[in-house]
Amino acid sequence: MKIGKFLSLGYEIEAQISGLYEKIATMTLDVPTSKTLIKISHEELNHASTIKMGKNFLREAPDIFADVDFDETELNRGLQECHELRDRVDENLAVLSALKGLLSLEKRFEKIHVGASVIVSDARLKQLFQALAKGDQNHIKTLEKLISST
Question: For residue 84, what are the domain limits?
């Protein structure tokens, strides 16, 4: 898969995850947990915006990325997992199970972002993927704390 499609799928996934965090935030009766999930939802929207900036950079310098190719398997699996979790949340999945589902997604996408940062040679795009991976790591830590306190 070429990087343009990779970034488009990444944008879609980040937007989906943001919506999941927001939906789950409305399900919990614990106000601090809800506020934390809303905060992460906004961070996921920022991730989507960051990816959109990467797409703009790609349009400006397409030759830099001509030889970059990604395996779309993990992204497609991740997107499918997002849809499945959304369906389960819509069917009143318990908050704890929903948080565990989000944790699984964050771990998957951290690996994808780290892998992408290794593949690209452009310093700005490498930095973009590293920043996304760092955000995922922070979300993983937060989710693990929420899960352990639930």
Answer: 3-149
pLDDT digits (tens, 9 = 90+) for 102-120: 999 999 999 999 988 888 7
CB neighbour list of residue 102: distance below 8 Å, 6 or more residues apart: 17, 20, 21, 24, 85, 139, 143
User: How many domains does the chain divide into?
Assistant: 1
**Burial of 137 from C-beta contacts in 10 A (0-12 / 13-18 / 19+):** middle
Locus of tokens 């700005």: 124
Orientation angle between helical segments 31-60 and 123-149, nearest 10 degrees: 170
Q: Is 55 exposed, middle or buried (0-12, 13-18, 19+ CB in 10 A)?
A: middle
d(CA 150, CA 146): 6
Whole-prediction pTM value?
Answer: 0.89
pLDDT digits (tens, 9 = 90+) for 2-27: 777 888 898 999 999 999 999 999 99
What count of other Cβ atoms lies within 10 Å of the Cβ of residue 22?
A: 17
